[in-house]
User: Which sequence fits this backbone?
């Protein structure tokens, strides 16, 4: 079983939350930036060939209010798309990706907030 970890040194923008009421252009821009950031970081650790079947787990290091798991997973969709574009996973459909429950860890200060994305290849 192969594992890789992708670190995003920030939390997803609030504009990407399913509960956000912002203009579509802000949501688009935030999604594009998150996807590009995930793509860059995933390229650094990408395997030679994309993996066909994986599990993905998000570990959130947060400060302030605990993020809602369902909304957090939805907010991370552009990051998952970036990981697919980087060649880590063949596709992000349910036959290829199983998303595990989100784990949370509180940090003392906002600059320490981040997301660790763990991708595990399933045989």
Assistant:
């Amino acid at each position: 079983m192969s594992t890789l970890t992708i670190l995003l040194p920030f939390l997803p923008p609030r504009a990407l939350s399913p509960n956000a009421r912002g203009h579509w252009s802000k949501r688009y821009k935030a999604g594009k930036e998150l996807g590009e950031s995930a793509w860059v970081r995933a390229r650094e650790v990408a395997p030679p060939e994309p993996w066909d079947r994986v599990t993905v787990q998000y570990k959130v290091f947060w400060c302030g209010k605990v993020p809602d798991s369902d909304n957090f997973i939805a907010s991370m969709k552009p990051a998952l798309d970036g990981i697919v574009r980087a060649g880590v996973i063949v596709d992000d459909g349910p036959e290829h990706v199983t998303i595990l429950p989100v784990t949370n860890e509180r940090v003392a200060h906002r600059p320490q907030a981040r997301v660790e994305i763990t991708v595990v290849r399933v045989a």
User: Anything to note?
Assistant: The chain is about 30% helix and 25% strand. The chain has a mean pLDDT of 95. Helices lie at 24-45, 69-75, 77-85. The domain at 3-121 is CATH 3.30.1330.70 (60s Ribosomal Protein L30; Chain: A;).
